[in-house]
Amino acid sequence: MPRPESKMINFTIDGREVSAPEGAMLVDAAKHGDVEIPVFCYEPKLGQPVGACRMCLVEIEGIPKLQTGCSTPVRDGMVVYTETERVKVAQQSVVEFLLINHPLDCPVCDKGGECPLQDITFGWGGGISRFIEPKRHFVKPLELSPLIAIDRERCILCYRCVRFSQEISEDYQLVLLERGAHSYVSTFDGHPYVAPFSGNIVELCPVGALTSRPYRFRARPWDIEGAGSVCTLCPAQCNVTITVRDERALRVLARQNDEVDDGWLCDKGRFAYQSFHAEERITEPLIRDGGQLRPVTWERALEQAAGALKRAGANAAAIAGGQSTGEEGHLLARLMREGLGSPHLDSRRAGTLSLDAHRALGAPALQANVSDLEFAHAVLVLDTDPVNDASILDLRLRKGIRRRGLKLAVASPGPSSLDPSAALSIRFKPGAGAAFAAALSAALGASAELETLCGEAGVESAAVRELAELLRGPEPQQGADSELQPREVVILWGERLTAAPNAELGAGALLGIAEALDLANVEGAGMLEVPATANGRGLREAGVLPNAGPGLSQLQDAGRDSAAIAEGLAAGELSALYLLQCDPLRELADRALWERALAGASTVIAHASFLTDAINEHADVVFPAEAYPEKEGTLVHPDGRLQRLRPAIARPGSVRAGWHVIAELALRLGLDFDVLSGAMASRQLFEAVPFYSGLTLEEIGGRGVRWQEREAAAAFPAPASAPSGDGSFEEPADPGEAAGYRSVWDAPEVEHSPAFDFLFKTKELV
Amino acid sequence: MSDTPPKAEQATPDTTALKVEGWNPGDDVIEIVRSPDPGPGRATWRTFRETARGLLTTFGRFTETPVTVEYPEEKTPVYPRFRGRHKLHRFEDSGLEKCVGCSLCAAACPADCIRVVAAENTPENRVSAGERYAAVYEINLSRCIFCGYCEVACPFDAITMGHDYELSDYDRSDLIFTKEMLLAEPLERTPLRNEGE
Ligand code: SF4
Ligand code: SF4
Ligand code: SF4
Ligand code: FES
C-alpha cells in the first residue's frame, strides 16, 4: 500500500508565509512556522481528531467563526491568526471553563510540573477566575485498575483515554458515563480496567486524572532524570525512557520511535521495572557450599567457575537467554569455542535449524520492517500471537486494519486476540505450524500435496485455499489500470514454526510462500520473524548457535543444540553447563528432560537475577546478572534494527557487567579478549560480523539502524544451496509444549514487581 | 576626591597636529581633558587632609564607652523578618503536618539543599491533611543560603524561616536537619527585637 506522500503548500500564519505538508491539521502545520497552538484533546497518535476541548481555536480569514486548529486541515493560501484579540479571549475563556470544575490541587497531584493543563493555563489562560460557586466533587482517588488511579475531579473530558481504549488497543473497556458536568471516565460496570496496554492512558492524560499507582507520589519532575533505553522483556524491543531518582528506576515511559513501537508500551514493559530493585534480586556472586548457595567474593566465584569449565573442556555447554546482549553472546561464543574447544552452544528454544535455512530466512531482501506491517495490503500472522509474543506489534496491526485498510489473516493453534479484527482466522492443530505453512505453500503453488498436508495440520483445505487467495489478492482485471501496484504481503511468523522436529519443513514452507508471493522483490513486502526470546535475532547473528559462527558463518564442526545439550548432560556425556541469563526449566522445551539434565550436570554456572527453581536447586556458581537498564551493549530487533542499551541506573550490590564477567573467566582460562569496556566489546562484535562491519555505537544512536539498510548488508552470506523444505511432517512428542505459547505476563520480572501482585492473587482465587 | 577638579576649558580639538596630506580626521578626533597639574603645595595638602579627617574620627571615639556585644553570653536581638533556620509547622487543631510533600520548596531552592520524598496518607496512618505527606524532609543547612525562597514557594505555609542563627556543629552531616528536627519546637535562643526597637 502506498505510504502517504506529503506535498508542501504555502499558507499564512500570524502574517508570515509558512510552508507545510498538505492536509496537515493547522496545529501541526503551525509548528512549521514556530507557532504553537495549545491543545488538550488532539493527539495524532490517536488517529482522527475529535475536537472535544476547544482549546485550539484560531481565526481563519473568510470564516466568520473561530475554528478548531486540531481538526481543520491546512489549505493552500489559507490565512490564519492565532494571536488576535478574539482568539485570546476565546483561549482564556476555554481555560477558565476548564478550571471551573478542576480542583487545582497541583501540590498533591502527580502530574504537577509536567502537566499540560498547568502549562497552558500559565501560557494562554487569563490568570484569574470569576467562579465562586462550589465546584463539582467526586470521591478521589479511585482505583481504575490495580495499576492506575483515577481522580475524576481533575478530568477535563478530553476523551483521550477513551479513544485509546476504543480505537487503539480496541479493548473497548473505558467509556464516559453520565452527562454534562457529571461525566466521568470509567469502565462500563466499574470493573478494574485490566488490559495488556492499559498503562498508555496514564501518559496520554493531559491532566492528573489518570496516574500510575506504582509511581504514585514517588517523585516530582524536577527530582528526576530521564534515561533512554530499550526494553528487553520481549522481542518487540520498545524504546523507553527510564525515570531515575537516586539511582533507582521509578517509572518507565514510552520513547516514541515510529519504526519500532509507535510511541506505545505494554504494561509489562511499563510496570515491571520494580523487579530491578526487588529485595530478592541476586546482587552478589554465590557458590554452592554444603548444598546451600552462599555469597562469596567475585574472586572465588570466578576461580571456581573457571576451574569447573577447564575441567569440563570440550564437554562444557552453554545456553544464552534472550536478555543477553549481542556482545555477551559473542564473548560467550568465543569463550566456548576458543577457550574450551567446545562447540556446544545455543540460543534457540528448540532444535537446530540448518545453516542454509538460517541464511535463506535471514536474507536482507526478504526482511520486512515494523512499519511494513501497517502499510501492507495483507498480513499473515503465522503461528504466533503478537499480543503475547511481541506485544506492541498487536497495536501496529490494529492500526493498519483501522486506518490503512490492511487485510489481516491469523493462523494459529489457539484463539488470538486479533481474531475479531482479522479478515480470516484459521486454527490448526497445536504443534502443526510447519505442516500448516507447508499446506499454504502447497496451496499457493497449486501442489497436489495440499490435501495430505491439510490433514496433518488439521485444517480444511478450503480454508487454506481461501487464505492463499487473500494473500494473492484479487486478480488484476483485464483492461484495468495497467500500472497495478504489486501486492505487498507481510508474513509475521513465530520462531516455533522452525522448531524440532519439523524445523526444515517449516523453513522450507516459509521460503516456498515467499517465493510464490514474490516477497523478496516487492518493496514493502517480506517476512518478519518473532523470535522466541527478546534478543533472539541478535544472538544468532553473533554466532550463539550450534551450527554457525558470528555472522552466520560456516563452522568446522557443529555442536549440540539446546535439546541435545540437555540429553548430553542427562546422559553424562557433557559435564558443565553455562547459563547466560537463561532458566532452562522455565524457558526451554521439555522440562522433565531439563530436570534430569541439570541434576546430571557436574557444574552449573549461571548468570541470574532471581533464585528460580533451576538456579536454587542446581546452580553451583551464580553470577548476579544485570537488569537491562544497567547494561551496556546492543540488541537486534526482529527486523534487523540494532538498538543500543546504555546504563541508566547503577548496578546494585557487587553486580558486574556481563561482558566483564565473561572476559574475566576467559582470562582465567588463558584467553585474553582484550575488552576493557562495553564499547570495546561492541567494537569486537561489529568486527566479527561481516554484515555489521563499519558500525559504530554513535551510528546506532538512540533510534537504532537496520543493518539491511547499510552497505555492509551485501556481506550477508547466501545459502550454499536453497533449503528444499522436503520431508514429511512429524508429529511433535508433546504438541502443547511444541506450540510453546506463553502469556505476556509470564516473566520473572512480572513476578518480582509488587505492582503485579494482583495478577497472582486472582490466579489463587481461581 | 572631595574637591571637584577645576573645569578644563572646553578645548576645541586641535586637529592640526594630525594633519596628513589628503586625510581629514574631522570629528573623529577626541581630546582627552585632564585636570591641570595641582602643583607641589596643593598635592601635599590633598594627601594629609584625608589622613587628618580619618584621625579626627578615631580621636573622636576615644571618649566613648565600648559597644562590643559579649556574644555568646549576650545576643543582639534580630528583626521579626530575619531569616534563620527553618521551621516546619503543624495545624494547631488537628496536629497534622501542614507539609504535603509537594517538593515545591525543593524546586525553588537555589542551593538545591532540600530533599523531599513523599508518600501516601492512609486512613491508619494520616500524617498530613492532603493525599500525600513528606516521608522524608531534609534540609542541608550547611548549604542553605537563607534566601527564604522555600518559604515563598510553599503553598501551605508549612515551612517558614525561624530566627535561630546559631548553626555550628562538629560534623557536617549533623547540619542535615530532618523533618523531626524541623517540626520540633525550636529552643528560643535568639531574642527578637521589639516593635520600634
Ligand atoms: S481522564 Fe484524562 S485523558 Fe481521560 S478524559 Fe479525563 S482528562 Fe482526558
Ligand atoms: S532558604 Fe533558600 S537556600 Fe535555604 S533552603 Fe530555603 S530556598 Fe534553599
Ligand atoms: S514545605 Fe511546603 S513546599 Fe515544601 S514540600 Fe512541604 S508543602 Fe511543599
Ligand atoms: S485540541 Fe482542538 S478541540 Fe481539543
Topology of this structure?
The complex is a heterodimer of chains A (766) and B (197).
Chain A: E1 8-13, E2 16-21, H1 26-31, E3 57-60, E4 67-68, E5 79-81, H2 85-100, H3 116-124, E6 142-143, E7 148-150, H4 160-168, E8 174-177, E9 184-187, H5 200-204, E10 210-212, E11 225-230, E12 239-245, E13 248-254, H6 267-271, E14 286-289, E15 292-295, H7 298-312, E16 316-320, H8 326-340, E17 345-346, H9 355-361, H10 370-375, E18 378-382, H11 386-389, H12 392-404, E19 407-412, E20 424-427, H13 433-444, H14 450-457, H15 461-472, E21 489-494, H16 503-517, E22 526-530, H17 536-541, H18 562-570, E23 576-580, H19 584-587, H20 591-600, E24 603-608, H21 613-618, E25 621-624, E26 633-636, E27 641-645, H22 658-668, H23 678-688, H24 697-700, E28 705-706, H25 735-739, H26 748-751, H27 757-765
Parallel strand pairs in A: 1-5, 16-17, 16-23, 18-19, 18-21, 19-20, 21-22, 23-24, 24-25
Antiparallel strand pairs in A: 1-2, 3-4, 3-5, 6-7, 7-10, 8-9, 11-12, 12-13, 14-15, 14-25, 26-27, 27-28
Chain B: H1 40-61, E1 86-88, H2 104-108, E2 114-120, E3 132-140, H3 149-153, E4 159-161, E5 176-177, H4 179-183
Antiparallel strand pairs in B: 1-4, 2-3, 3-5
